[in-house]
Batch of 4 targets.
Target 1
Amino acid sequence: MQIHNPWNPDTYTDASPDAENAGVNRMIIGAMRAGKPWNAMAPQELRDFLASGNSPLGMPVYSERAIIRTIPGPAGPLTLRTFIPEKIDGVYLHIHGGGWVIGRADGQDALLENISRNCNLAVVSVDYRLAPEHPFPAGPDDCEAAAVWLAKNAKHEFGTDRTFVGGESAGGHLSALTVLRMRDRHNYTGFAGANLVFGVFDLGLTPSAASWGDEPLVINTPVMQWFIDHFGVTDKARSPDVSPLYAELGNLPPALFTIGTRDPLRDDSLFMYARWIAGGNQAELAVYPGGAHGFTAFPTKMGAAARAKCEAFLRG
């Protein structure tokens, strides 16, 4: 599947929709409208609903190849879910999504197992603390601790100090924050690349997120605000320490930004890509017409193309 030119206006229209992907989008909207809105649930209620497999996201599938280990964290032992290939060419520090409130490191085993096998990367996924029980900065602190551990121990643990970082949605946000914290607090600029997949980079809401409305295509404006409020950053949403879009972005690793045009967070990737480039860094923007939030997890040709693109970046 061809990746469309992000600067061609036709990319953002429905003139040539992907019928398969459009069908999935309609299914998600219908299923979510038939159920209780996410932002009308308590955090644990939403977690239990997603874990039940009754949401449009389906039931999580767990891999027997996953290896659980712990490292010291800022609030006690920090769990890492790892996948180790036979041949290791690098290490991928993965940070899961879920709006800082839901999600776990074991929620995307198939994705991480494939990355490990196809890219010859040891994958280390962080089970960071979730809000609102542990509001900002608990989650970012845990991700920073994992990155510090990896910077110090990758060579000894995995035989290589070639490291990548990345994640999806809130994981893209936390990955960007981690890169910035490692640069500013630890003088570490050694990441070989940042794989930032439909990340949220402005917690004050970019125009596309603020104007999306209540159409429930996985997320919408009320759901994003619900996540941000529970994260505990509403009063400081555009601080550079919270929203990486507003940070000084020099001396950062090459990045791949992946986004679909039917994602409320579309502008986050468009804006962050431009600022990443303006900071003097290498970056690529991959835009997928009609792609919804989370589309890389869908069993579609578009989802497969995006996953292959990310893997190619992590191999490069």
Target 2
Amino acid sequence: MQENSDRIMGFVMKHYREGAFDTVKAAGRHMRGAGVSFRTYLFAAVGVAAAVILGIFIFRGNPSVQRYEAVDSALVASLPDGSRVTLSEGSTLSFSSGKGERRATLEGTALFEVTHDETCPFTVSLGRATVKVLGTVFQVRETPSEVKVDVLEGKVSFSGEGADASSVILTSGTQSVLHSGSASPSVVEESLPNPTAWLTGNFRYEAVPLVTVLEELSDYYGKIFYCDPSASEKLLTGTFSVDDPDAIVSSIESALQIGIAVTADPFKE
């Protein structure tokens, strides 16, 4: 893993020229061209980013339980079982293991890389939902209105809580959501293209319908992005920083020759 992190950093430093080179995108092509898996690429990149990411690890109370809290920015943490977790800003995680199970309790959003162990399943609890895995890469995001799971590699079981709850099996590239008030999650027919944009810092699109792009922007920023229905199937290709939604809208309007309106989402305000 360290070797791959060093390769990415070395490649970026060698080829970077301000305003003329998309280093993140190029590093991804470089690693994929070398036969590196998505799992290795993503977490090697996180390892590099961790050099400039500040987080806080907090240990308190029961010595058998580790507590991690991302206060002012994202936090990358290695769990005692060898698994790795990246918490988004404002998220917390408690972890314990023993008696044939590994259990994490999450509040917020986290990306997990779970070390494989058939004899000791890994469970993520969120109060109203549970995710169980043996070893995989997946993301869990909890908001007041829903719990959403995106599987990047491997397979997970996702279930609600209560006597009437049922579970769904999710595989690589699939997404499921459990809405507040529902007992069981449902599988999303078409996942959004950038579930880890909060971590990568970018939205990347390759011939993606505008309607999907606007849906993702609405989901990410908690506002409603919309355009004339006649333009909804236009295809967008480009890379945009998550830090400036106004610049994203302006760039899309210019590229596709359309108008985009943005209003508050009454369900998220």
Target 3
Amino acid sequence: MPDDSLHQPHDKLFRATFSNPENAAAFLRHHLDAPLPALVDWNSLSLLPGTFIDSRMKGSEADLLFSAKIGGSDALLYLLWEHQRTDAPLMALRLLSYMVRIWQRQAQEGGPSSRLAPILPLVLAQDKDHWKTSTQFHDLFAFPSEHWGAVRACTPDFAFRLLQLVDLPYEDIHGTPEGILTLRSLKAEPLGELFHDLVWDRTVITGVSREAVERFFHYLLNANVDTGVFRAKVEQQESKNLTELAMTLADRFRQEGRQEGHQQEIASLQKALLEVLDIRFGLVPEGLTETLSAVCDLDSLKSLHRTALTCADLDSFASDL
């Protein structure tokens, strides 16, 4: 089954926007902690291939890895997009596993004598509630603080930058117009504010490509917004091209089988699939649940239901996605 068919609309919008190094650089240089923005050679920022997230988290995470020169030396910037909508207390541990995978690939490609590049991890969270997660790896350890110094040299430690969209006012989201439009949309969706005036800022929307506007409209329609309000917002832009594009997309969505009966059949199959997994293996991880909730093709759901009945464990089921 193609991987792209399982991805949430959030992931598609995030990847399409920030796979472009220009958009990524404009965002990162405003939102990395000092002194890093001044040390990075932003013209050297380059997207590297591959993903490092766990198969169970595909439905709630997406990641991008960039190489860059920092202070004249090679380094890596790892951007993890998190939209599982709940606090992630073990985020530092999950990040460490992804970082180790990156270093392992780097070592394999460079040979036994290769030196590793430092990784700067940044987590961008979409949750509407403020996380209480610590950004320090050492905070995961249950060990008396007065004795931490004795074991510190034997224990890995790092910190990651956590950027929560809920904490950023719309006007404080910086970057290229495409990056701003994307992040304002991703911030607005869990808050129910997709029609906020600053999401529909005319100076931003008119500053992006037609493809970016189409992704924005597609994201809104995927969120099942009120089509009447959607049309009114489009008309306020006073652009014939945008109006025609919006109407074309709205028609396409109607033609793609969003009838109530079809949706009910999909929901019924999704529920049955999750029930089988729950009965056979216990609590289904949230990331896997979100991945399956994004599968809307009836044939795919039927096939996954058969797999759920016969697979050995959750890992083997997740590996087939």
Target 4
Amino acid sequence: MILPNEITPELAYLCGVFAGDGSIGYRENKKEYCIKCVGNPKDEQEYYNELIANLIKKLFNLEIKPKFHDKKTTYGVSIYSKSLVKYLTEFIGLPLGKKYSKLGIPKIFLKDKRLINNFISGVADTDFHLAIKRGYYPVIKGVSKSKVFIEEIKKFLENDGFKVCTYERKQFDDRVNKEIITYHIELSGYKQFLKWMNDIGFKHPKNQDKIDRLI
């Protein structure tokens, strides 16, 4: 395994993916360090097989084979490595353990707009989706359990000239048998979509058909 010395846009993107769909943890009882990053097996297998696995190989020289997790309800990658966990949490600044109270754009990326854009692109490929209303009106929507994280992304996007809407939503979650609050972000309209594709973009193949219809 190799730990990168250079902070590249590709590294920032992958860290965005980890911030969105990933968890980084240490289990004391097993003395086990793990990075786990998974998505919906219905439309994410190609993404993990072709993009994420290749990025991990390129950045860390690790051969990772994506697979089903959580009784085949999710699909993605898991990496058991103390040195990589410490690199991502102590050097990059991603949260260790329960992430939502600590989630944010890592400070190491804030010095370079390209790095922030690529980090947000990684978050968007996991926690955002592209909708087309009325057959032609694009809306980019994102969601997180962290209000602070959504507001931080909103602030950066607005400073970069985007028009952004945020709101919170309460709903009952059958999986945990209680009401949860999620925080949402939206960018609407064709001009916003074009600026997004020019500045940030989507890499996830699930969005490509919609993008092709709009461009």
